[in-house]
Amino acid sequence: MTREIPIVRMGVADTGDPHGAVGRSLPMVDGPDKVSGRTVYGTDYTKPGALVGAILRSPYPHARIRSVDVSEAEALPGVVAIITGADTDGRTFGFHSIISPRLADKMPLERDKVRFIGDEVAAVAAVDLATARRALLLIDVDYEELDPVFDPNDALAPGSPEVHEGVDANLIDEFHFGSGDVEHGFSEADVVVEAPFRTQPVSPAAMETHQAIAEWDGRGRLTMHASTQMPFLLRAHLAAVLGLAEGQVRIVKMPMGGGFGSRMEMHPIDPICALLARKTGHPVKITYTREEEFVSTSHRHPFLVEGRLGARNDGTMTALELRFLIDSGAYVAQSLGVARVGAINAATLYRIPHTAVHSRTVYTNKPYPSAFRGYGNTQATFALECLVDELAERLAVDAVDLRIRNGNRPDTVTALGQRITSCGYEEALGRGREASAWSDVRGRRRRRGQKAVGIGVATTINVGGGARDRGGSDASGAIVMMRDDGSASVVTGGQEIGTGGITAFAQIAAEELGIEVEKVTISNSDTDVIPWDFGCHAQRNVFCAGNGVLLAAREAREELLRQAQEKLGIDASDLSLAGGNVYVGGGPEAVATIADVVRGAHLRLGSSLVWGRGFYDPPTERTDSEGHGNKSGAYSFGAQFVEVEVDLETGIIDVTRVVAAHDVGRAINPAGVAGQIYGGVVQGIGQALFEEMRYSDGQLLNPNFASYRLPGTRDAPPIEAIIIESGDPEGPYGAKGVGECTIVPTCAAVANAVYDAIGIRFRKLPIHPWDVQAALAESS
Amino acid sequence: MLARFPDTARVLAGGQSLIPLMKLEFAQPEVLVDISRVPDLDNVREGPDETLEIGAMVRHDRVHHDPVIRRRLPLLSEVARLVGDPQVRTLGTFGGVLAHADPAGDYCMLALALDAQIRTNRREIPAHEFFQGPFTTALQPDELVTGARFPASDGRHAFVKIAAMPFDSGVPSVAVQWLQGAWRVGLTNMGHDGARAQAVEAALAGGASPSEAVHGAWNEPESTSEEAVPRSYRLHMARVLTQRALEQADLSGEDVR
Question: What is the complex's ipTM, to 2 decimals?
């Protein structure tokens, strides 16, 4: 046997058996192709004879479309087809359309009205991009400008412009979630802290922009090559908006350069591309520019949060009230889900008996936000975790101790009915406190030259085992087929959006089948082939789809053992599988190879295939109208400790180190988990300190990376990732989700660290150096 | 070529400014004249009368590492170290920055502060005449920047730049150089007339300390782009960073007074 050398990747040691597959920091199975340039991304891909599409967008934030004249554009040589709202049959779409038809408020191309600068009006298919763009300039749209409204408070005011006719005061949705009697809870409190918070719109800024490639076959069936996190949702929504049956649409999911939530839903690019392809009879490809990516795909909802938190002198929290005002921009997209996720997580991070979250979501004439990693939880947690810091100060207790005292514990039920099973919340805080040397920095107002040093903490609860909310199935299906050489083909609906999903699936299948990870292949792109799955979002991929793969592999394993029993005449219960071999009773010598068993079963008269099916739907409940219900099969927890240096002259904040401790149940791939932690923290630092989509009268001022500053390598501090393995009873090998929660507490931890350094609270994101400098000048 | 297409041609050197402008459709040239293989544009040499000559096609990375520059004008090497990112420094050129005349261009500021001469295919122009305003130079349509001649100095100097800002933040970077018995102080993003901080130089010559010299040295800076950053902060940063540069410079190099 070769000697096993412990592998340490990204600073993370393996936790699993070095001979096994789970718990090992194995390289990503799609890594070699990605780093060598072999991977064909959607943007790289095209079809022979494909035309190029381009979209005409509204230059006004709010205007009626009187008429659209395409005659001059159509006459331009090289233009093959032009479509307008008239070509769309007037069908609308929206992510939440399953809840209510009124939430489907977007048309692929608007017919009567445009509602933001960038709203889709017409589209051209031409022989090349230059021709398509020239044609756009020749389309003559007669607009009647209407009064716009940009501020969500203004939008609610009586007499304000109606973004959508008939939606009173632009109020899309209002709800009250909570438990107990919040006023009674505050009457029990000895100390109450209260403050307003504001978060800003930020862009996921995925490296690859959106693209769509549409092609119709001779029987009227549509194939879309798309970069999507939810192929089956795209199939359903595309079919609906085009008036097709779902079976008439086939999605082929392409490798994508980043998702972060922005590729969850169907965006107008998809039906526009399909309509152009149908009209021209040719394949059509549309690729978004970076500017279009900013204005026409997802970004994070800005929240205004009025927060109030009360506790007794002994540190027991008694009441929490949060009031959200959420700017949904011109259309609904996922704003209701975002509001609900923010409300439920904020109400259940601590064991507070009396909670009330009041949320209002309104239309304005701006580009519309939607899903982005963190999904409402980031915004709500910023407010809540800053308030908890203020509460700790008022109570004169340690901010870590206060959190441990009130935080979630294993095997409990929250006030909103979530069943907490595995829970490493206290361990995350405890280990993070130790690793960050919290007590050496906290409250000591240290100086390094002209920089003040501070440390802050913030924590998070997230769904970690699917997210049912109001939907139907939260499931994922998989098929595992053994090949004659002892390798395995896994066909799964589970996704890969750059986060290591398929590597985790391969590890799970390999572990279950007793073969090497290198012998597992994953097919997961074609909706004509793969079993149904609810997509990669809400950090559900490894939990839900991983469980689907696990069930399928387990069934294949049983069949494998049954065939081995038949072949060897040894009872299956005495057999074990490892390293591609079959062993008896844990004995040292292999009695057969797995390849022998599979081939023997297959290549004979009355042959059989060694394979298995799995379909996993977590045992969860829908969320009711008050936010109650066990919506996830598991919950993930984390605590982040952030140290900052604040330059007292320039106001510039440097994050100097971060300790991020996350309870992931079990790390299928520890390096992959650490990667999710590093990425979430750095993205969170970007939101905390400099990212912001800036608007002037509805016009986005910074839709490019020269003026929209993203965090880069030099902004990334040393990050210590602490992986807590609480061993979830429902997760595959005990695993829970980790992809999303790692960004959630970062902004609050940064703001709390800045307070610790200079004694000034910043409740508005991002914390600009000029705001810090002005506040320092004022306070001195 | 430039004479043949006077209105539609643009010179392409490293492409690190022009290509982004073309991508944003701010520049839409029909003809690109690639000068990367024109001979003798990438020389660095000592010139007459204590000067240093740098060719237009010398890339930032070489400006940073070149031994002659490091010996004769180490400040320029330090400025080049903080231009853009590694990709930009590998491709972007010295002359490209000068010809682009971005108010945020560190070389432009340095040329103005040190009274460099800009060389073209037909003449040598003093920097303060060459730069006429944001993105505006004295170049004729068929004229090409071939290099520049800087006064050499290995005396006290410093360059202070805040890299952690958006590219269009308008926050200045500051270069200071002890040259021929006096301080030269240059700032980016302070407008055409503000690139050389003569008020600060005069105060220092009159015996003021760095903190005294920067106090009240600037009025509101000109607006350079969309107001991502408040003017008052940019002005504050001009003072803080200039003071820091002067204090840092005092610790550097040899005192040649």
Answer: 0.91
* A544 DSSP 8-state letter: I
Dihedral (C-alpha) A745, A748, A750, A751: value to the nearest 10 degrees? Answer: 180
CB-hemisphere CA count at 13 Å for A206? Answer: 31
Q: How far is A260 from chain B (nearest CA, A)?
A: 23
pLDDT in tens, A538-592: 999 999 999 999 999 999 999 999 999 999 999 999 999 999 999 998 788 999 9
**Pairing label, strands A354-362, A317-327:** parallel
How many Cβ atoms are within 10 Å of B87's Cβ, its own excluded? 9
Amino acid identity at A56: L
d(CA A604, CA A227): 42
DSSP three-state, residue A82? strand
Rounded CA gap, A555 and A567, in Å? Answer: 18
Residue A663 near residue A671, CB atoms below 8 Å: no
Say how far apart CA A370 and CA A94 lie, in whole Å: 11
Q: How far is CA A594 from the centre of its chain?
A: 38
Q: How does pLDDT run across A319-361, given as a tens digit for each residue?
A: 999 999 999 999 999 999 999 999 999 999 999 999 999 999 9
Report the alpha-carbon distance of residue A292 to residue A296 in Å, rounded: 5
Kindly compute the dihedral angle of the four CA atoms of residues A237, A243, A245, A247, in this order, to the nearest 10 degrees: -70
Both tokens of A575, joined, read 């057999």
Q: Enter the tokens of residue B156.
A: 């006290």
Confidence (pTM): 0.95
Distance CA A675, CA A665 (A): 16
N-terminal to C-terminal alpha carbon distance within chain B: 49
Choose the mutation target among A649, A682, A768 for the interface with B, i.e. most B CBs under 10 Å: A649
CB within 8 Å: B228 and A694:
yes
**Single-letter amino acid, residue A748:** A
Nearest-Å Rg of the Cα atoms of chain A is 27
- The structure tokens listed for B170 are 């308008």
Between strands A719-724 and A653-663, the pairing is parallel
Query: CB–CB of A352/A318 below 8 Å?
Result: yes
CA B176, B177, B179, B182 dihedral sign is positive
* Adjacent-strand bridge partners of A578: A581
Tell me the per-residue pLDDT of B33-87, one tens digit each, with 9 for 90 and over.
999 888 889 999 999 999 999 999 999 999 999 999 999 999 999 999 999 888 9
Query: For B166, which of A649, A651, A707 is closest by C-beta distance?
Result: A707
> d(Cα B236, Cα B117) in Å, to the nearest integer?
31
**Crossing angle of helices A335-348 and A377-395, rounded to 10°:** 30
Q: Dump the DSSP string for A467-535.
A: --TT-S---EEEEEEE-TTS-EEEEES---SSSSHHHHHHHHHHHHHTS-GGGEEEE--BTTTSPPB--
Asked if B240 lies within 8 A of A694 by C-beta distance, the reply is no
Rounded Cα distance between A41 and A196, Å, is 43
Q: How far apart are CA A604 and CA A484, in angstroms?
A: 12
Q: Are the CB atoms for A611 and A559 separated by under 8 Å?
A: yes
For residue A561, give the H/E element and its range: helix A546-568
Indicate yes or no: CB of A773 within 8 angstroms of CB of B20: no
Q: Are B187 and B242 in contact (CB under 8 A)?
A: yes
* Rounded (5°) CA angle A620-A624-A629: 35
**Angle ∠(B236,B242,B245) on CA atoms, nearest 5:** 140
Q: Which of B19, B168, B171 should be substituted to probe chain A, the one whose Cβ sees the most A Cβ atoms within 10 Å?
A: B168
Cβ–Cβ under 8 Å, residues A263 and A205: no
**Chain B CB contacts of A650 below 8 Å:** 162, 237, 240-241
Q: Can you read off the two tokens belonging to residue A742?
A: 């790692």
Contact assessment for residue A424 and residue A663, using Cβ atoms and an 8 Å cutoff: yes
DSSP 8-state class, residue B155: B
